[in-house]
Amino acid sequence: MDLDLEKALDEPVDLSHQFDVTSQRLERDDVLSLSPVSFSGHLRKADTGFVLDGQLSFDGTTTCARCLKPVSFRRSGPVSWVFAPSHEKNAVGEGEEVELSARDLDIVWYDDFVVPFDPLIDEQVLLELPMKALCRDDCRGLCPMCGSDRNVAACTCAEPTDDRWSALKALRPR
Q1: 3-state SS, residue 40
Q2: Is residue 126 a contact partner of residue 140, using CB atoms and an 8 Å limit?
Q3: Has this prediction a pTM greater than 0.90?
Q4: Are 91 and 115 in contact, with CB atoms under 8 Å apart?
Q5: What is the spatial distance between Cα 60 and Cα 40, in angstroms, rounded to a whole number?
Q6: Is a pLDDT exceeding 60 seen at residue 99?
Q7: Do 20 and 39 touch, CB atoms closer than 8 A?
């Protein structure tokens, strides 16, 4: 979807759209499924550009970081973007060192009044996805030796020994 900023020059515009975001597009193999991402917002003219405030909501399934079982999640929250013309960015002299504020990082610079909106939604979805989802807080994970699920049954595999320090044991006084 493309966002036409020119429509908000005269009066604010209400927006509503559903985005089909895939785990391949997000480059997250751990995301098993993702519902359509619902966005509703309000685009208005600001001092030097435009402001888009809205609400994003979606749900899906990812894998547990320890045992690989499916874990459901639901995310919903406010989002906001500030759009400013590119010539405003170049107002600072060439080669000057400028300290960026947190607000500066949220600005989307545009050359044309039509801005691709899908990459902005993808970025927000990536920020909202769980980094390491767990099926439960005390998940014991998979055995690194045999691959059995330690949540289901105790594993009989012996812990691997760490021989890296064995040469130093000979130097230790008795």
Answers
A1: strand
A2: no
A3: no
A4: no
A5: 19
A6: yes
A7: no
User: Strand (E) positions, the chain?
Assistant: 2-4, 13-19, 31-34, 37-45, 50-63, 70-85, 107-110, 114-116
Instruction: Work out the mean pLDDT of the chain and round it to a whole number.
Output: 89
Using 50, 70 and 90 to split pLDDT, how confident is the model at 90?
A: low
Please choose, from the candidates 72, 77, 74, the residue with its C-alpha nearest in 3D space to the C-alpha of residue 56.
77
pLDDT bin (cut points 50, 70, 90) of residue 14 is very high
Contact 37, 56 (CB under 8 A): yes
- What is the C-alpha to C-alpha distance for residues 106 and 35, in angstroms, rounded to an integer? 26
Query: What span, in angstroms and rounded, lies between the C-alpha atoms of 91 and 20?
Result: 37
| The two three-digit tokens of residue 44, written as one number | 């208005």
What does DSSP assign to residue 170? T
